[in-house]
Amino acid sequence: MSSQTSTSFMPEKLRILSGSTLKMLAMAIMLIDHTASFLLRHYPPAIAPWFQIGSTTYSLYRVMRDVGRSAFPIFCFLLVEGFLHTHNRFKYGRNLLIFACISEIPWNFAQNGTLLYPDKQNVFFTLFLGYLAFCLVERFEKNASMQLFCMLLLLAVSYFLKADYGYKGFVFLLIMYWLHQHKPAQAVIGSCWLIYEWKACFAFIPLNMYNEKRGFIQGKWVKYLFYAFYPVHIAILTVIRKMWFGI
Asked: Which of 24, 50, 107, 186 is the most exposed place for a label (fewest CB within 10 A)?
């Protein structure tokens, strides 16, 4: 699938965010989300009600979790961009799988304080399944039946593997890939799919401010630091939780 310049619903003068800026934004939003999820939900002042809208009561914890919903769509967008522009598809997929395995240890401890946590796997596995789907779509570009078979097979894997965001996350990755050249349609259809977690739809605002440039994050070691941020920040938050709350 071609990686030509894509459309956007944002005017040209507002397309000011590079890929590197989107990466930093995604990491910051994810840190906000995980700080609330792994730490603040155990801290009574953070879950104390601030105000109520309808049946939803808002607290510091709730607001931070809602803000954090935008991280996954941005990471999915970055995965598609990385897949389309990488010089080595094999290494790209290998890195995703390696960091999925590395991240599973801090992820499991963060979830229930043990080395094994069969209920849910970390989000790198979801991203890796998306990467495999992109590869297979290109491999069977002229064979719709094989594409459908492969997508259904990977959909089943995502369901039984219990990777973070599950089959819904996998389908969202396909939406982001198939519509990467048509950002308005990507935003509309992606938002419809995310209606169950509608706060995540706000991610399409910065995504349509993307200027198609790589930005300041370049070089092999800086790239690996981006990958490593996920397991490292989870490990740090888990250690802080243990020291602070003894959990």
From this structure: 50
